[in-house]
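Chain A, query sequence.
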Amino acid sequence: MKAAVLEDDIEFHDFHPPADDFHAEVIAGLKRSPPAISPKFFYDQQGSRLFDAICGCHEYYPTRTESRILRDHCEDIAALVGQGSLLIEPGAGSTEKVRLLLDALRPHIFMPMDISRDHLRAAARGLAEDFDWLTVCAACVDFTLPLQLPVDPPGLRKVVFFPGSSIGNFEPEAAVEFLANLRNMVGDSGGLIIGVDLKKSPDVLHAAYNDRLGITAAFNLNLLHRINRELGADFDVTAFAHNAFYNDAIGRVEMHLQCQRDTTVRIGGEVLEFNVGNSIHTENSYKYHVEEFQQLAAEAGFAARACWTDDDRLFSVHYFDAA
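Chain A, predicted structure.
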């Protein structure tokens, strides 16, 4: 662990995984059958920028729908959470959504966590500038792993804010494990505010992950650009195409990079062959009914207290207490 660094108006804790971890996970994933790479590796600086652009796409309903729910119910959420907490946001990204809650929640400390160091630093600085009463302690970390909070003052109630339906990126069993890690992190008096995408028409889902401007495709393909740049690989990115679809039987959107022609890839001493039709599985996004997700959270040690949805029931925001 590196010591905290004071930067302008924020405290920055840098636990960024070393490059050899990235290399090892990519190689192991590409050697799987079928090949797969964790979606956490989407988020280098360019990937983070592209994701922010996706959130502004007309077809991508989750961001604007969840934001509207948070805006409409911020006082209800604050009544359940209370003020003066340690508010923790894993995968904080641009921190746009937490801005909708900060004035109502008035946390003592806000701790954004993200794997993209530069994006996190910029977002944390912007937040500290706009909310000059707020103490911002940012942590660059792989939040999918169990971790010890770098800042944990005694007496502060710990509450996790996990918007964007990022929980859908986990397999259901892994989602329970991740939520259980959050339960351990917040302790017996803690809470959880979480956004969860709901099951709906496959047509709506297909459009959301295949926007007409091709931003989601660029986001997916950027993973190969990142591997080339950071690991010295020689992926011919033009040999792969974005492919996203809703798997109704499993209840998830799947994203793949599908090989369009036979190609050979070298990463260090590894040589990998991809044939036409092969795909690299890059992301799942599970969708839930409200009751399904509440049961999932209960298995991890959380008790449902409130749930808010939009009128069209596209998206949900839940509040849980530690059980």
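The radius of gyration is 20 Å. The first strand starts at residue 5 and ends at 7.
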